[in-house]
């Protein structure tokens, strides 16, 4: 009897102990030899909006001299990497080049995830790669809907100044990454080089308006709905700016073809989410949507509800969806769930194109590679004149 009680007590103590210590730790067990003696190490990733110097995600030395930090349980699939406080001091691969994001699934189970930092990414001086027909339209373009300003870039076709033609317009998010390596986060899309080459090949080109993201405000402005962990909620105001302030200004100032059928929105990741939402909300303004690696996961339930309740006519809108099959667990499936809703809303199947690549990554390199094909498909009324190499 006494023995049985002792066993029960021991089991209860073990259960209590397990519950109290079911913590998840990130640990770094080795650092590159060139790591500064007093270096501060930070975790940057999907847990903290990719802030490379977030003080709440700084690792501290434990009793063994290893850098360690506790992270939230039940976080699901987490992408991350390490820095010394900024993107210029991000960890690298064995050759000191850019390292792909680490991935781990965080559950309720207690675990310690050990990491080895092989190198710090080599600092390479970036060059100005913007073409002569790219310029800054405004350093501080007014956004009354958000009570702020933003830097706006513009690309004009090579024959803009020597012709009297009117041109289609592409509005693109994250302008820092579109034209110039100097301003890019991790390489540029080469939008100007691609369109300039298409012009040389005799293909139709367009005006491109790039809107820089707001840095720390990017997530808030690129989602119409709030995510409990990451924020959001200013997307309605941002899309109203695109439709009611920026587009009218561009149409008034430049020789454009202002109809929705000649106006595109293109964006990637959170930029893909907000471009899709803006196109659905304002189909009379934006009739062509290039949705690259969209972050539909951010508010999928809200997005699904909005699409089902939306009464705007989308039958003339074109949708080009792009994603790598291994970018995340649910990106491709989320896109596939959206398509039946669009078809139900009257969008012809011929107006929807999906392209899923096994080698596709969540990166400017991938989006740059695919930009030309997406552009040409969206303007498919010229399709018969396009070379097959673009498809």
From TrEMBL:
Residues 23-116 form the CBM20 domain. Residues 1-22 form the signal peptide. This is Alpha-glucosidase. GO terms for molecular function: starch binding. The lineage of its organism: Bacteria, Pseudomonadati, Bacteroidota, Flavobacteriia, Flavobacteriales. The keyword Flavoprotein does not apply. It comes from the Bacteria. Keywords: Signal. PANTHER family: ENTEROCHELIN ESTERASE-RELATED, FERRI-BACILLIBACTIN ESTERASE BESA.
